[in-house]
Write a structure and sequence with these properties.
about 425 residues; alpha+beta; Rossmann fold; Dna Ligase, domain 1; D-amino Acid Aminotransferase, Chain A, domain 1; 5-stranded antiparallel beta sheet; about 30% helix; binds adenosine monophosphate; binds glycine
């Protein structure tokens, strides 16, 4: 069959890499892809928000199965559009993806269906939000309601930072219309874990656990990024937490969405804080996480096409999904200056040497130029390796990372260290 992956980052390279291994897939296409993806798939230059262009391509090319990586096309209704045209597509519908697209909707669903999460209040008026912050005090977390590329969340340890965050979101409109409404929520303490699950709208099958590294610098310092690395499994997510997360979080979310007329199919990503009172939901994403996908899907033994078809045909119940026992670690290599301003076009060296170590180099922001691979984004590569244990996977991945360089390259040296403290 012909498979189309929508997106052009590290997550999408991982999806393409996985589909390429399926005996059921004859050809993988990726829109728009990147220089690394081009080695594994046919890249087509259509942007992820060009829903008409994507539909036309899929119809003209006779694509049998489309898989959506990023959130933007989901919230624009790409899945609905493909389904109306009779095409098979894996991802959340527009109404389902609003669980990620609106933090207020997510909070309303969680409160209505008794899903553990931080207490909150929502506002359309900056003065009222500020008055609320003055009354309840810090620490607290201020979140723009809409999508903001992971940047619309400000964790405020003092009142002034929270008040400034309201100004940034609602008055300076730093995140555009995403800041028409905002949430002020209770600050939760604990360690974070990402739980992704496949769902066909009724049955939910969790994937193996993982942990992201959101801050740019070692020891979780500096500003938030899209994610600087991940590992799987996350030892902090112990076996005894699994039934609680399944029964009290994943299943009620999917049942609640169905009851709301927002039947949810695809991947649901629950970002959890493991607090002293138990796991609580920080956020939902309506898609695979990036870079969690790199560390999670490299461990998937089952053919991803089989799982995705079971989701689309609503026969996930009874499906057995197999995972490799080994651990995986992904280190993101980024452009100097990221998550702020950065240059593009630096020649990347050492890609072949890194792959020769046995690691897998997923491309996130790369382009081809005059026979070289050059940087073309903030997050450039997601170098991923497995090992019998997390320490072994860490050793393996950094051996590969050290082979790669370019002008201004930066990466965290401590990916996976939190796991070691738990082992
Ligand atoms: P989100 O995009 O909602 O996951 O938020 C981004 C990051 O902000 C999370 O990964 C957490 O590190 C942090 N965060 C979000 N909500 C809270 C909260 N209620 N308490 C503490 N930290 C939070
Ligand atoms: N790694 C966080 C995300 O994909 O949103």
């Amino acid at each position: 069959m012909k498979v189309l992956v929508v997106g052009g980052g590290g997550r999408e390279h991982t999806l393409v890499w996985k589909f390429k291994q399926s005996p059921r897939v004859a050809q993988v296409y990726c829109a728009p892809g990147n220089a690394g993806i081009a080695a594994d798939a046919v890249c087509v230059n259509i942007g992820v928000e060009n829903t008409e262009g994507l539909l036309k391509f899929a119809l003209d090319e006779g694509i049998d199965l489309t898989v959506v990586g990023p959130e933007a096309p989901l919230t624009l209704g790409l899945v609905d559009k493909f389904r109306e045209a009779g095409l098979r597509i894996f991802g959340a519908s527009q109404k389902a993806a609003e669980l990620e697209g609106s933090k207020i909707l997510a909070k309303e669903i969680m409160f209505k269906y008794n899903i553990p999460t931080a207490k909150y209040a929502d506002f359309t008026d900056a003065a009222k939000a500020v008055a609320y912050i003055r009354e309840t005090g810090a620490p607290c977390v201020v979140k723009a309601d809409g999508l903001a590329a992971g940047k619309g969340v400000i964790v405020a340890m003092d009142e002034q930072t929270a008040v400034d965050a309201v100004k940034l979101i609602m008055e300076d409109r730093a995140f555009g219309d995403s800041g028409n409404r905002l949430v002020v929520e209770e600050y939760l303490e604990g360690e974070e874990v990402s739980i992704l699950a496949f769902t066909d709208g009724t049955t939910v099958i969790p994937m193996v656990s993982s942990q992201d590294h959101k801050r740019i610098f070692d020891n979780d310092e500096g500003p938030n990024t899209g994610g600087m690395g991940a590992y799987s499994p996350a030892p902090v997510y112990t076996k005894d937490l699994e039934p609680f997360v399944y029964d009290k979080i994943l299943v009620p979310t999917i049942e609640g969405m169905k009851a709301e007329g927002r039947t949810y199919e695809g991947v649901i990503y629950a970002g959890l804080m493991l607090t002293r009172e138990g796991p609580k939901v920080l956020e939902y994403n309506a898609r695979f996480g990036d870079p969690e996908t790199q560390a999670v899907l490299i461990r998937l033994e089952t053919d991803l096409v089989d799982i995705i078809e079971a989701v689309i045909d609503k026969r996930l119940a009874g499906m057995e999904i197999k995972w490799h026992e080994e651990a995986a670690v992904c280190v993101v290599m980024a452009s100097g200056g990221y998550p702020g301003r950065y240059d593009k076009g630096h020649i990347i060296s050492g890609l072949g040497e890194a792959s020769a170590t046995g690691a897998t180099v997923f491309h996130a922001g790369t382009a081809a130029r005059e026979g070289s691979i050059v940087t073309s984004g903030g997050r450039v590569l997601g170098v991923t390796a497995m090992g019998r244990t997390i320490p072994e996977a860490i050793d393996n991945v950094y051996k590969a990372v050290e082979k790669i360089t370019w002008d201004g390259v930066q990466y965290r040296k401590d990916i996976g260290q939190k796991a070691l403290k738990r082992l």
